[in-house]
Design the sequence.
């Protein structure tokens, strides 16, 4: 429902661009108020589109609770999103994707929002990795904006930025810089594949990636720094 229209939409790498004509999408805050351009929050749809009210087979109540209970009379699929100064939509991931760090529950979308709010960061993806002490630790993959140097000093700066925005418990244990993030053709970041890399597993299905070489490069960099 949010995707570029061939030959009509000017795209931006990583952005889902704009809603289709007739799709009344918006980004709202905790209270359901629309956020201004340049802000982030929860992706919602104010009016239904054809066939979206087909419910969940055999469980109408679950459908209502899952998609219509967060904001009254508004469809919420559970995604975090931001909208840049030109109105382009940038999907941040599931807000119910939660990490458990030392008994603190922290949403990956919240962490990614904190990272991309830094003026030197273009994109970020956050995953949880096993940790013997905290249960889970935070690993962040970051793409910096053109003109900035991705070095140890910036990594420390970003860790401090996240700690200030969310709290010390949210400081990423692992922070890796990458020229690109693995994405599908629709612009969705494949965090599942990043978890495979971080945990040293055989990479799963990559057929939906725009460029499989991106993941290979991330694995090479990750293994080099870990080794």
Sequence:
């Amino acid at each position: 429902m949010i995707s570029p229209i061939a030959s009509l939409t000017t795209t931006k790498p990583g952005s889902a661009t704009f809603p289709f004509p007739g799709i009344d999408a918006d980004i709202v805050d905790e209270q359901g108020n629309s956020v201004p351009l340049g802000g982030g929050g929860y992706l919602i749809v104010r009016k239904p589109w054809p066939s979206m009210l087909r419910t969940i087979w055999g469980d109408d109540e679950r459908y209502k609770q899952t998609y219509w209970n967060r904001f009254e009379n508004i469809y919420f699929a559970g995604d975090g999103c931001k909208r840049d100064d030109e109105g382009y939509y940038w999907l941040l991931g599931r807000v119910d994707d939660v990490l458990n760090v030392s008994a603190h529950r922290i949403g990956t979308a919240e962490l990614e929002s904190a990272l991309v709010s830094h003026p030197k960061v273009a994109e970020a993806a956050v995953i949880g990795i096993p940790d013997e002490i905290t249960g889970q630790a935070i690993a962040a993959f970051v793409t910096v904006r053109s003109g900035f140097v991705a070095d140890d000093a910036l990594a420390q700066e970003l860790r401090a930025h996240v700690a200030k925005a969310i709290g010390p418990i949210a400081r990423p244990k692992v922070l890796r810089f990458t020229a690109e993030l693995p994405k599908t053709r629709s612009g969705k970041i494949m965090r599942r594949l990043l978890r495979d890399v971080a945990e040293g597993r055989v990479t799963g299905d990559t057929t939906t990636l725009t460029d499989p070489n991106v993941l290979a490069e991330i694995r090479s960099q990750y293994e080099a720094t870990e080794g």
Observations:
- The chain is about 25% helix and 25% strand.
- The first strand starts at residue 25 and ends at 28.
- The longest helix spans residues 212-226.
- The mean pLDDT is 85.
